[in-house]
Design goal:
Length: 141
């Protein structure tokens, strides 16, 4: 999992979907997950979440956890060890670039003979020609 991409995807996908308490719980679990070096599954007790989120009721933690699961932000299962719950953070981002996203593979030359600004590749024969080494700038459809 890419930490920054996951956090950015959470920021985008949670708008208008998660309330403040759900966001706080997700982010607390995300930080715990990261502190544990992002294992596939990790365990956290309800009491730890209550303490770290300043929540007084275990029922609230259980309710928030279920809401995050229903909305696709969290997967969890009982460990059979009292109130320890195993959590899995599903990947929220896609490896596919967004439609019409600009993929910068180099900068076309402004003047004939200029090398590419990105890779210092082969000078262009004509102004505006893409770099021969990194193919210039293209649009992904």
């Amino acid at each position: 999992m890419n930490y920054v991409r996951q956090l950015n995807a959470f920021g985008e996908k949670s708008i208008g979907v998660l309330n403040a308490k759900e966001q706080a719980m997700y982010l607390r679990l995300f930080l715990i997950h990261n502190a544990l070096r992002r294992p596939e599954w990790f365990t956290v007790s309800n009491t730890q979440l209550m303490r770290e989120l300043d929540i007084k009721s275990e029922h609230t933690v259980i309710k928030l956890r279920e809401q995050l699961r229903q909305k696709g932000f969290l997967i969890f299962r009982s460990t059979g060890q009292g109130k320890m719950i195993a959590y899995h953070m599903p990947i929220l981002y896609s490896d596919t670039p967004a439609k019409n996203a600009v993929v910068d593979a180099g900068t076309p030359a402004k003047n004939a003979g200029d090398p590419c600004k990105k890779c210092s590749g082969t000078p262009a024969k004509n102004a505006g020609d893409p770099c021969k080494k990194c193919s210039g700038t293209e649009v992904v459809n």
